[in-house]
Amino acid sequence: MKIIRTVSELKSALAEARSHGTVGLVPTMGALHDGHLSLVAKARAANDTVVVSVFVNPTQFNNPADLATYPRTEEADCRLLEGAGADIAFIPTVDEMYPQEDTRVFDLGPVADVMEGPMRPGHFNGVAQVVSKLFDFTRPTRAYFGEKDFQQIAVIRRMVELQGGYDGLEIVSCPIKRHSDGLAMSSRNVRLSSEQREVAPCISLTLKASVNMARERSLEETRRWVTDTIDRFPFMKVEYYEIVDGLTMQPVKNWEDTEYCVGCITAYCGEVRLIDNITYFNHTTSDAK
Ligand code: AMP
Fold first, then answer.
1. pTM for the complete prediction?
2. Cα separation of 97 and 177, whole Å?
């Protein structure tokens, strides 16, 4: 595996790869775990060349403390990527990615106006900035994103549309990888104390239980039950729980109002902000799942 730190080296390494094969890109912020590696495995299975970027993107952090405490484990990341069969680890500095301030404002529309949008002002614009740069530099055939960040995938699809499609680039969404107790894997989990780590699975367990409940209760009752149940656990505070249309991200009022129904949650466990989601049902035949 090649470790590349500059954009010019990345472009020249890929010019050849792209001329005779497919390129899969997996954007990450490092501190890699099995969730990330499941994306790399999917990319490895479908592409001739696999590029994984490892870059803690400052423009998507609206909270400086979160940026400062974000785990950075480059050596371990490289070992894991080598083991997962990546061809290139792209690990640029902030100056390399942003030689000038990126002042672009993306018109991300309604998908970015809800949930993480208002809660983390500027976050999705920062995500669009960094991912569009990565797409420009890499020109991938396919790019892989995890459904843990469910709304982010809709935002990326919108950004791709705004940028003209990147030559038919396919956005591949990948299922959430969980620990055996149900907690969604996340780089932030290492910041949980051992007591908090024991409590944190209440998020996914409650979401799962709510799927059965949804058969008998209204959407609003289910939504409130999830929030109230999680809030009763020590350390836990739900920031929002929204039940949305899985394509438009817009909150729905009744189960019958959508064909693709997903519950998206953000909850604090102590100081650590955790996100998760669950699909209640998906009756669409759309590829954009
Ligand atoms: P991050 O490093 O947190 O920016 O994540 C990089 C990519 O890995 C994003 O597309 C995430 O959605 C994805 N990812 C992170 N955690 C998981 C997980 N537990 N399961 C599946 N994908 C994940």
1. 0.97
2. 29
